[in-house]
């Protein structure tokens, strides 16, 4: 871990980073580092580690700064500002973000849906989220290669 980047993320979130998230970053699943997102098995859409569950602190700092730049309008025209305590841990690639609550009020992994400007719980824990990614990108990738 790079202390300066970890400190910046904690400053952006106004809280310490969750222990289970720091453990995940320290023990990032090797299969997700190389799992590609594109259906044609190319790297044109990046890897899971670059998008869905970012593995690099520099990318995490950048995306967390980005969501906090300013307000966006919800469908009713009301200004929405990114909640300070929500740490972005990845994105879908089409404008939605995955995040965890550093305050621990919301458990698991939330998905921010940019069109409706709302949050939805997509996994009850980080382990479940990692399992979903492994099922989506690693298992399907391996079964496609066997055909």
Keywords, separated by commas or semicolons:
147 residues, disordered C terminus, alpha+beta, 18% strand
Characterization of the model:
The protein is globular, with a radius of gyration of 16 Å. The chain starts with a helix and ends with a helix. The strands form two sheets. A four-stranded antiparallel β-sheet has the order 3-4-5-6. Strands 1-2 form a two-stranded antiparallel ribbon. Helix 1 (3-13) runs parallel beside helix 4. Strand 5 (109-113) and strand 6 (118-123) form a beta hairpin. The protein has one domain: SMI1/KNR4-like (3-Layer(aba) Sandwich), CATH 3.40.1580. The chain is built from five helices and six strands. It is 38% helix and 18% strand. The model is unreliable at 143-147 (pLDDT under 50). The protein is an alpha+beta fold and 147 residues long.
Question: What's the SSE blueprint?
Answer:
Elements (H helix, E strand, L loop, with lengths): L2 H11 L5 H8 L3 H5 L22 H11 L4 E2 L5 E2 L5 E6 L5 E5 L7 E5 L4 E6 L2 H21 L1
Antiparallel strand pairs: 1-2, 3-4, 4-5, 5-6
The ordered H/E elements are HHHHEEEEEEH
Supply the CATH architecture: 3-Layer(aba) Sandwich
Please tally the helical runs, counting DSSP H or I stretches of 4 or more residues: 5
CATH fold-level topology: SMI1/KNR4-like
CATH C-level: Alpha Beta
Q: Strand order, biggest sheet?
A: 3-4-5-6
- Using only C-alpha atoms, the radius of gyration works out to 16 Å
Average pLDDT, rounded to a whole number, is 89
The CA-CA distance between the termini, in Å, is 40 Å
Structural class: alpha+beta
Low-pLDDT stretches are 143-147
**How many E strands?**
6
- Please give the oligomerization state of what you see: single chain
């Amino acid at each position: 871990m790079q202390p300066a980047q970890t400190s910046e993320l904690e400053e952006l979130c106004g809280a310490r980073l969750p222990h289970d998230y720091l453990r995940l970053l320290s023990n990032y699943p090797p299969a997700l580092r190389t799992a590609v997102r594109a259906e044609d098995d190319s790297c044109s859409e990046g890897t899971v580690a670059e998008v869905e569950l970012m593995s690099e602190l520099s990318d995490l700092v950048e995306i967390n700064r980005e969501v906090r730049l300013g307000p966006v309008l919800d469908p009713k025209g009301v200004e929405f500002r990114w909640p300070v305590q929500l740490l972005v841990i990845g994105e879908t690639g089409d404008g939605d973000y995955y995040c965890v609550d550093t305050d621990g009020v919301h458990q698991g992994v939330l998905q921010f849906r940019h069109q409706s400007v709302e949050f939805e719980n997509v996994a009850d824990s980080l382990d479940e989220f990692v399992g979903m990614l492994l099922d989506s990108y690693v298992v399907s990738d391996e079964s496609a290669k066997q055909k």
